Amino acid sequence: MNAAEIFVKLCGEVGNFTQRHTGISVVDAYFGPEDLHPAKQSTEKTAEELVSDIHQAFDTLRDEIEDPLRMENMMGELHSLNVVVDWLAGKEMSYAELVEGLFHITLKKFPENEIDKIIQLVEERISEFPGANLQDKITNFGSDGEITGEALQRLIEDELQEKSVEIGTMFRERVFSLIGASVPDKGVHYEAVRNQPWSGYNWYQGGFKSLNQFNIDAKFNKDTLQGVIYHEYEHHVSNLWREKAYLNSQHLELSIVPLHTGSCVISEGTADTAKEFLGIADDSPRISVVNALYGLRRMTSINAAIMMNEEGKSADEAVDYMVNRGFRAQESARQSINFISPTAQDGRPNFFAPYIYTYFIGRTNFVLPTYLKAVEKDVLPEFFKTVYMNPYSGSSVTWNKAFEWM
Ligand SMILES: [Zn+2]
Predict the structure, then answer these.
(1) Structural domain tally of the chain?
(2) What is the 3-state secondary structure (H, E, C) of 183-225?
(3) C-alpha 144 – ligand 1 centre gap (Å)
(4) N or C: which end of the chain has fewer CB within 10 A?
């Protein structure tokens, strides 16, 4: 087997291992050859065997892969998978070591004075909106256009389906036209689901199609729903380019998309920056409140995750924190515990517990500053080319190197 085949096989095996321990596979999408399909890989391998195979794969990669960015990308991915295996095998590690090992970023709690600053920003921007005090204003703001249950289901299955066609056109007209290249797109199918730890999920199906699921147990209003739609659609777009790159290059490792690696930091970062990419980050009073609230909510969710996973605080304490400092509704804060809690409801390790960092850190430490620099230097076409046409740029391990030209 060559290095890329070994890589795909290992991802599948680690996927089967995480499935066994948490109910969720680390493999998020696969569109490669049938014989390397994760479902056809061993489900029996022990943690020791997997770690030993990963170490052997490092050597093979070093010997075989010549393109340095490609090699660093693949090594970074395998390093993360090694940490995934160690974590679920019960190896002693702190939450900070887990997050840093998976995502190659530094875990840091936001100090309360930084939270104060962003609360102050929300307060300034929301001042003209109705309500007796800040809490009241944020509650009113959130319930404006709030939609739940069956109405939400109808919206998702009818109107969003149309909206996605519109967003697809926007990507073609505003982003791909700058690149001067096109990508096949068979569209996104929308579905409402319940009982999930996340609020929305893009399942890339291969063959240039996606399934977008929205969790209708989560509370949405018109702003948060819009945020999720753009976010999930960008995941679809970035996978379209990845599949195209795979078909053109026949580099097998591109046909598998693992979770919990440096790639997630960039893929969540680009998804959270989709509105800027499409030039729809308008500065209406409503949007400027939404943007400030976005920062406050992502930062307080990260702090709540650290409280639960690192400081041993209870779910109630984390909920109180998100309500008091993030100005979240009780119910919505409670819902988000499913995503950040160290254990899932079935008592097994919560596979998503370390994941909350990828969004905010991906956007603010990687994607947004590079995007803004590209705007300033008037090199947006090259920026988008690097993001979408060089699949090896898309990892926290390789991002800065991929943009050295800028
Ligand atoms: Zn996402």
Answers:
(1) 2
(2) CCCCCEEEEEECCCCCCEEEEEEECCEEEEEEECCCCECHHHH
(3) 24
(4) N
- Domain boundary among the residues 40, 75, 103 is at 103
Which of these three, 70, 103, 136, is where a domain ends? 103
Provide the residue range defining the domain that includes 160.
Answer: 112-402
Q: How far is the CA of 202 from the centre of ligand 1 (A)?
A: 7
Q: What is the pLDDT of residue 156?
A: 86
CA–centroid distance, 226 to ligand 1, in Å, is 14
Report how far ligand 1's centroid is from the alpha carbon of 281 (Å).
18
Q: What are the residues whose beta carbon lies below 5 Å from ligand 1 (ion)?
A: 268, 271
The chain-wide mean pLDDT, for the chain, equals: 93
Task: State whether 363 and 394 are in the same domain.
Answer: yes
Mean pLDDT, residues 278-300 taken together: 87
Same domain, 168 and 196: yes
Average pLDDT over residues 83-94: 96
pTM score = 0.93
Both 94 and 171 in a single domain? no
Q: Higher-confidence residue: 229 or 79? A: 79
**384 shares a domain with 342:** yes
Q: For residues 85 and 129, state if they share a domain.
A: no
Give the pLDDT confidence score for residue 283 in this predicted structure. Answer: 72
Confidence of residue 157 (pLDDT cuts 50, 70, 90): confident
Question: What is the Cα–Cα distance from 175 to 185, expressed in whole angstroms?
Answer: 14
Taking the C-alpha atoms of residue 120 and residue 144, their distance in angstroms, rounded to an integer, is 22
Going from the Cα of 59 to the center of ligand 1, the distance in angstroms, rounded, reads: 32
Task: Please tell me the distance from the alpha carbon of residue 135 to that of residue 245, in angstroms, as a whole number.
Answer: 48
Q: State whether 76 and 148 are in the same domain.
A: no
pLDDT of residue 55: 96
Distance from the alpha carbon of residue 95 to the mean position of ligand 1, in angstroms: 21
pLDDT of 186 = 93
On whether both 15 and 142 belong to a single domain, the answer is no
More reliable by pLDDT, 399 or 346: 399
Q: Are 133 and 10 contained in the same domain?
A: no
DSSP labels, 6-36: HHHHHHHHHHHHHHHHHS--SEEEE-S-GGG
Ligand 1 centroid – CA 64 distance (Å): 32
In the three-class reduction of DSSP (H, G, I as helix; E, B as strand; rest coil), residue 259 is classed as coil
